[in-house]
Design brief:
- There is one protein chain.
- By secondary structure, the chain is of the alpha+beta class.
- It has helices spanning about 1-30, 35-60, 65-100, 110-130, 150-170, 175-200, 205-245, 260-270, 275-280, 305-310, 315-335, 360-385, 415-425, 435-445; strands at about 135, 145, 290-300, 340-345, 345-350, 390-405, 410-415, 435, 450-455, 460-465.
- Strands 3, 4, 5, 6, 7, 8, 9 and 10 form an 8-stranded mixed sheet that branches.
- The protein is elongated, with a radius of gyration of 35 Å.
């Protein structure tokens, strides 16, 4: 306590500087709603004024003279006024939280009552100044506490209590990242105000209130960062969902949905791996192309899909592809396989695009992924009326990956490795995994194989293939 008494003015000056900086940061912060920005700005301004009033109050008390008397009286009035004003603006901040974060249609009744308590507090402050109910200033310009000063503590205490009760009542609707700073803002000043009531000469209530205002801004920045991150994840999820759901239906949309079709096509052509999307966002003018020295490519398609789909409606066809490819996508995400695209009933994926994973057994991972695809098809056939079989082809080698296009983008891979993987699939057998010799050489000791089988590859002649 003695340390606080001796260094109170220095601490106040330091916190004033922080408040001034935060006021500026609040004005220039992007991605924050105008209402939230203005409430935080005036909350910091009120806190700054509160500290200034406290500083003048302590600086001139005990100093003789009429000027000192005026400063002491005025600073004490402003001390009480801005303490009430800070609680009032915080009440507006809470209303904004309940209306925009929680989703209530109107402000809680308890918060509306706090507004009336604020007006009551201002009225009591005016009356107290005329009749000296809170304090009196003696001949040495020092404050002399009066019995009525307890009213100056009760009014803010009741306001904060109502706000706390409102928070507790709606606690299940408020995210923890909002609930925690709001509770701290209320409880900590309440505790410090009780201590200040018994410790004359220390502005514990004011300092704790201003401290919580600063903490509130820090939490608000954290919420803003989380909101941006959540929006980014939502955008990626929307792109993936639209690709799976609209790829086959976009061609049969009616003219009334043409605008929606254009948006869907734009989304479909802009699905990129996360790291590539980040690079493209940071460097929009850079050509994104990578030569991958060793990667493993997988192709799979449905056996007899054309004949099968001719006996199905469009909705049934899309539902079948969507359900099956959804299983494939989930497995790819679990096992760290990068899905590249779907083309009709064909599914294309790759492992080893990252330099970090080039020597991490990507060939074995891809073969196990292929086994999992066969398991997914068997699971799919247990519930779907049409029984499906797929062929799977895998090849390992060098390839080129990159983003092409200027107004619309697509991420793709090219090279003989891709062509051979496609040939392995087309020459494979239903519900069998067919791999090239390059893949076989990496995993021949990890699985049981049948072969070699001679495969004619356009432009390369006869090649050896192996069946798992």
């Amino acid at each position: 306590m003695e340390f606080l008494r001796e260094n109170q003015i220095s601490i106040i000056n330091f916190i004033q500087g922080i408040c001034a900086i935060i006021m500026l940061l609040t004005l220039i912060t992007k991605n924050m709603s105008r209402s939230r920005k203005m409430v935080l700005f005036f909350l910091e301004l009120s806190a700054l004024c509160l500290l200034s009033a406290v500083e003048f109050s302590y600086a001139y008390r005990g100093t003789p003279g009429h000027f000192a008397y005026i400063v002491v009286r005025l600073s004490k009035i402003l001390d009480h006024f801005f303490a009430l004003m800070t609680i009032f603006i915080f009440n507006i901040y809470m209303k904004d939280i309940f209306l925009h974060e929680v989703g209530l249609k109107k402000s809680p009744v308890l918060l509306n009552i706090v507004d009336f308590i604020f007006l009551l507090g201002i009225s009591c402050l005016v009356v107290a100044e005329f009749f000296g109910l809170y304090y009196k200033v003696d001949e040495t310009n020092n404050y002399v506490r009066q019995n009525g000063r307890i009213v100056s503590y009760i009014i803010p205490f009741v306001s904060l209590s109502f706000q706390l009760v409102c928070l507790i009542y709606h606690r299940k609707k408020i995210p923890w990242r909002n609930f925690l700073p709001l509770v701290l803002f209320i409880v900590f000043p309440m505790i410090m105000s009780v201590l200040q009531f018994f410790a004359n000469g220390l502005a514990l209530g004011s300092l704790s209130t201003v401290g919580m205002v600063i903490v509130l801004y820090v939490f608000e920045l954290q919420n803003l960062n989380l909101a941006v991150e959540r929006a980014h994840r939502l955008e990626v999820e929307m792109l993936e969902r639209y690709k799976k759901e609209l790829e086959e239906t976009v061609k049969i949309r009616t003219r009334e949905l043409r605008v929606a079709n254009e948006k869907a096509e734009h989304l479909l052509l802009n699905i990129l791996p996360r790291d590539v999307a980040k690079e493209l966002t940071e460097h929009p003018d850079r050509v994104i192309a990578h030569r991958i020295p060793k990667a493993t490519v997988l192709f799979t398609d449905i056996v007899g899909f054309t004949k099968m789909s001719s006996g199905m409606s469009a909705d049934e066809t899309v539902a079948m592809l969507n359900e099956m490819f959804s299983l494939f996508d989930e497995r790819a995400e679990r096992e760290g396989i990068e899905k590249i695209k779907t083309i009709g009933d064909a599914y294309m994926a790759v492992a080893g695009l990252s330099s970090k994973s080039a020597d991490d057994g990507e060939e074995e991972k891809m073969v196990r992924f292929a086994q999992g695809l066969l398991d997914d098809v068997r699971t799919f056939n247990e519930t779907f009326p049409v029984k499906v079989q797929i062929r799977v082809g895998i090849n390992t080698g060098a390839l080129v990956a990159g983003v092409i296009g200027k107004t619309k983008f697509i991420y793709d891979i090219w090279g003989d490795t891709v062509n051979v993987a496609s040939r392995m699939e087309s020459t494979g057998e239903p519900m069998r995994v067919h791999v090239s010799e390059s893949t076989y050489n990496h995993v021949k000791n990890d699985f049981a194989w049948r072969g070699p089988v001679q495969v004619e590859v356009k432009g390369k002649g006869l090649m050896n293939g192996y069946f798992l």
